[in-house]
Specification:
The chain has one domain: Cytochrome P450 (Cytochrome p450, Orthogonal Bundle). With 396 residues, it is α+β, with helices and mostly antiparallel strands. Helix 5 crosses helix 7, helix 8 packs antiparallel against helix 9 and helix 9 crosses helix 11. 43% of the residues are buried. The protein is built from 15 helices and 14 strands. Strand 12 and strand 13 form a beta hairpin. Keywords: Heme, Iron, Metal-binding, Monooxygenase, Oxidoreductase. InterPro entries: Cyt_P450, Cyt_P450_B, Cyt_P450_CS, Cyt_P450_sf.
């Protein structure tokens, strides 16, 4: 079995479950060479992924959560880091700045508005009978929600979403420097937001961030820009990719789709969790060992890169019965699609509400789904989901 978890080709039609299966069975913690880098340990069993993600004292999010070490262009950030690349207690202090916006009660208060946005999104395509499901449906919802949260025009959310796709596309699959250029454009837009919100603060997350204090001081400009990048970037990943890959999974499992539609109100909650497990939109997160430690029978050295593969953990037969099958009624379903521990996804409550609203609207108003062309998957070894998915349908 050839194992290559770096090449976007391995992820060209979704996650490489054949490779993951072999790794779990034969080498659950395995050294993986890295051209141009020092290599890393791939971690593929549920138990080990769960343990690494929760143990920030042994496995650090610094200097980065990406496999590749920080590129030279990151030096432009100076001493500043994105919240995802901090450990507690620093991470905890920054997380507190936005935590209240993403609690379950706060997310539920937005439920009615999110459902209205879902209606608006389907309204725009329902009469046509065809659409690119990623661009015109799945990608619209998180773009609109994060734009509203930040106090931005909805159309701007759509343009920012396009930049996140470039940021997540593997460097070898696009023009040289395209990812860095997209980050620069995001910062350029964020700088305008910063100036506008300082001059005219509003009742929005951007204004509150600029007024907030961490360790008794206001955020510096680069700290705000990195927060802005994180919120726009992470705010779209799971929802966009889960909706597109999830609908594809439902189309490939018509018995499960029929089961879900037969009692949508009562079955949508467990179905959503199973789609999150089955599709696992975030492929991996990296940690760096802070000390020598044993993991899965391997001796990890201080400074080694340790990479958790969530898509593999979520198909581990030691944790899930018949893991490669889509079983929408599966319960309990303690998947790791949102991670675990101190770094568990802060936006998971609002993401679930977005997914619920969008699936409800799509499955009650659209039917007879057919692919108009094969889906084109995002050329990325970090985020898994279709980049384009031409779809034909009928109005229900």
């Amino acid at each position: 079995m050839k194992i290559d978890l770096l090449s976007p080709q391995s992820f060209a039609a979704g996650q490489p479950h054949d490779q993951f299966h072999w790794l779990r069975e034969n080498a659950p913690v395995r050294w993986h060479d890295e051209p141009g880098g020092k290599g890393f340990w791939s971690v593929t069993r549920y138990e080990d992924v769960w343990a690494v993600d929760r143990d920030f004292q042994a496995f650090s999010s610094e200097p980065t959560i990406m496999i590749a070490d920080p590129a030279e262009e990151s030096a432009a950030f100076g001493p500043y880091k994105m919240m995802l690349m901090m450990d507690p207690p620093e991470h905890t202090g920054f997380r507190k700045l936005i935590r209240s916006e993403f609690t379950l009660p706060e997310a539920k208060m937005r439920g009615e508005r999110i459902q209205a946005l879902a209606r608006q999104i389907v309204d725009a395509v329902i009469d046509k009978g065809d659409c690119d499901f990623v661009e015109q449906v799945a990608g619209e919802m998180p773009s609109f929600v994060i734009a509203e949260l930040m106090g931005l025009p909805l159309e701007d959310g759509r343009e920012l979403y396009k930049l996140t796709e470039v940021i997540h596309t593997a460097p070898e699959a696009q023009a040289p420097g395209a990812g860095a250029q997209a980050v620069f454009k995001m910062f350029e837009y964020g700088s305008k937001v910063m100036a506008e919100k300082r001059a005219r603060p509003g009742d929005d997350l951007a204004s509150r961030l600029l007024a907030a204090e961490v360790d008794g001081r206001r955020l510096e400009d680069m700290e705000f820009l990195l927060f802005f990048l994180l919120l726009v970037d992470a705010g779209g990943d799971t929802t966009r990719n889960l909706l597109a890959a999830g609908l594809l999974a439902l189309m490939e499992n018509p018995d499960q789709l029929a089961w879900l539609k037969a009692d949508l109100d009562n079955r949508l909650a467990p179905a959503q969790e199973e789609l999150l497990r089955y599709c696992s939109p975030v492929i991996y997160m990296r940690r760096t060992a802070k000390r020598d430690i044993e993991l899965g029978g391997q001796q990890i050295r201080e400074g080694d890169k340790v990479v958790m593969y969530f898509g593999s953990a979520n198909r581990d037969p030691a944790r899930f019965e018949r893991p490669d099958e889509l079983i929408l009624s599966r319960t309990p379903n303690e998947h790791l699609a949102f991670g675990a521990g101190a770094h568990a996804c802060l936006g998971q409550h609002i993401a679930r509400i977005e997914i619920d609203a969008m699936l409800r609207e799509v499955l009650t108003r659209m039917t007879d789904f057919q692919l108009a062309a094969p889906p084109e998957w995002l050329a990325s070894n970090f985020i898994s989901g279709p980049k384009a998915m031409p779809l034909r349908f009928r109005e229900a």
